[in-house]
Structures are given as structure tokens and as C-alpha cells.
Known about the structure:
By secondary structure, the chain is mainly α. It contains 18 helices and no strands.
Amino acid sequence: xSTDPVRADDDGDPLGGDDGGDxxxxxLTQRILVAMAVGLGLGLVVNLLGVEGAIADFMVGxxxxxxxxxxxxxxxxxxxxxxxVSLVCGTxxxxxxxxxxxxxxRTLLLYLxxxxxxxxxxxxxxxxxxxxxGFDLPTELVFxxxxxxxxSETLIQIFPTNPVKAMAEGNMLQIIVFAVLFGLAxxxxxxxxxxxxxxxxxxxxxxxxxxxxxxxxxxxxxFCLIAKVFAEQGFEAFQPLLKYFGVVxxxxxxxxxxxxxSLLIFVGRLDPRLFMRKMRAAQxxxxxxxxxxxxxxxxxxxxxxxxxxxxxxxxxxxxxxxTINMDGTxxxxxxxxxxxxxxYGVEIGPTGYLMVVVTATLASxxxxxxxxxxxxxxxxxxRQVNLPVEGIGLIIxxxxxxxxxxxxxxxxxxxAVTCIVAKGEGELDLEIYADPxxxxxx
Length: 442
Ligand code: ASP
């Protein structure tokens, strides 16, 4: 019996599974990219021409809103069943259980390392460019952060008391814990375990097929989401914040286009161009949804089908990454902290910056993969170095666009680390990785 659900079918497709079409392949990627460009163009036209009235309301608040919301809902719909079933299969298929610990350790280490690098570069860029120097502070600012929960509480919260509640609430870490325990028990349960595994493998194939189906509608969903954001974005807010926007964007691009490729080359010994090309569709979905959580089905599918990572690794590292690995978010937090310190004329010094690196790395773990949460978690970082939390109000107006870019960086980091860990574990199919069209057509 095949232990890999993705390859367990017999439809003649070397990658297994019945894709239900072109999944994240070259054709679909192109359609998604075109949809993004057209959506961006249309949104900007509506915005810049200041189109208002019933037609604009019907288009932006009606059609685009409904189209985008339905796409987002159908992505989110898949997350819980996909993560649970896929991870149960992945854990149950591990031949050697000690590998789980090693896999977890390496993944965690790389996730923390990339985040710490991200925030360090962000702070350095902020100190160098001084985006907040001479910034005119408005007299009235309102932003209330919320206190960070104590560490002990955060740790306890990882363990579910009720798996159904964890699933209903979409609590990813709790679902991961339950799935791993369930998968482990399956490997120990003899024949009943084997029967259950075969059932779960079938479930997994069906859910993967559902992801494939949904991907066909991604161009429409991406178009609606992006057109709406750009039609509604208030561009006046950018004027005084151009320097801040530029620094965050610059470091995000540096991280995505230099740091990850370097890691892939030097640590993973993998071709980064292939990686980037195959990640494009997932990146655009992340950009349009601003949610690593909602993009998770696409990221997982890309890692397994397009990049060749075995389900045993990807089913664990991708959901974990979407939950705790947020390099893009940490970059925004690093630059924002420096910006707010400069705007308020507060000196935080080297020790303060070191504290920011540690807290932003930890805050990234606690940041949920949904839009805008990075900004809320920024309050925790600011408090740590005694900066005014209401400083967040300065940058909130332009955060949506940065959120979109940083989410794309966040999921790219998850996939890059996944490929590197999988390569180290001998769980990366190099033939699939090297084939530009792998997973592109059924
Ligand atoms: N939107 C980001 C994500 O989902 C989190 C954040 O930075 O707000 O990855």
C-alpha cells in the first residue's frame, strides 16, 4: 500500500491524484497574473477618476465585493479539513517516529532564523534611511493595542481540550497537535490503524481535488479582490509615508528575491529560479487575500505537486509555517518600530534594537495568518521598548498594501524552508522540482 496519498492513485499521472485540471501550472499562473494586472488597472482607474455613485457602488461594493468574498470563503473552507487530513496522513506515513522530532526541530530553527534575519535587515535599513526623521506628528492619534497574553498561557493554548472546538475556531496549532497525535496513534494501532489510514488517504485525495477545482476560479477571485482594494485605497495617505513605504517594500523584496534564493542555493543546493517560477500563483493569491491562512491550500498544493516535496514533510511544515513563520510581518514590524521611534524622537539604542529583534521574532509566531494582524502584534513590540502604541495610527492608513506584499513573502518563506528541510530529509523529488511543468497539467 502506498503511504503517500498524493501518489496513491492509478490515473497514469506520475504525480498521482486526479487534479481536476491545470493546478498552479504555467497556463493558470499566467491567467492569475493577467487577472491581477487587470484588477489592479481597473481599481486604479476607478480610484483615480474618483468614480462614484450607483454604478461604482454596484461594481465595487457589489460585484467585486461578492466575488472576492466568495473566493476567500472557499479558500478558507478548505483549510481545516485539508490540514487535518493531510497531516494525519503525513504523520502516519512516517516510518521512523524519531524523524518527527528532527523534522520539527530543523523546521523551527530555520523558521526562527529567517525571521531573525528579516527583522535585523529591516532595522538596519530603517536606521540607515531614517524614514521617520522630521515626520510631522498629527496632534490626535487613536490606536489602542491589546496586551500580549502571558507566555505560559500561550503554551497551554497549543494543546486542545476539544478537537471539534479547535476545528470550529480554525485554531491551527491545536489542529496540528491533534492531527499529529491521531496520526501517531494510527501507526501504533495495527490493522485498524492501517484501515483508517487508507480511509484518510482517500479523503486527502478528494480534498486535494477540491483545491484543484477551486484554483480554476482563482483568476476571477484574484481580480475581484485586487480591483476592490485598489479602488478603495486612499492614496493621499501615502504622501507623508513614502519613505516608510519604500523601506518596508525594499526590505520585503530583498528578503523575497535575495535571502530566500541564497538559502535555496547555499543551504538547499536548489535552483531558486524554478522555485520562484512555481511559487508565482501562490504568491499572487497571498497578495490578493493578504492571508497566509487562506492561501494555505494553494501553498501546500504547490509544495507537493509543483515543487515535489513529499506529503510527510509538507503536510507538517506548511501549516506550521502559515501559523508561526511570518518574515514579511517581522520586516514591517522592524521598520515600523524604527520609524515610530524616529517620528517621536525617542532613542532606543542597540539594546533596544536587539530587544526588537527578539520580540518581533516571537510576535511573528503569535501572529495569525489573517489580514492586518501584524499591525496589532506590533503593539507588543512597541511596548517592549517603551514606544507609544498609538504610533501605529501613523502607518495604519497604508498598511493594507504592505500587508499584501508581506503575506506573499510570508508564504514564500514557508515554502523555501519546506524545500530545504525536505531536501535534507531526502523527501524532495528532484525530478519534479527540476521539471518546470510538473503539476502543471492533469
Ligand atoms: N496578513 C499577514 C499574513 O496573513 C499577517 C500580517 O502581517 O498581518 O501572513
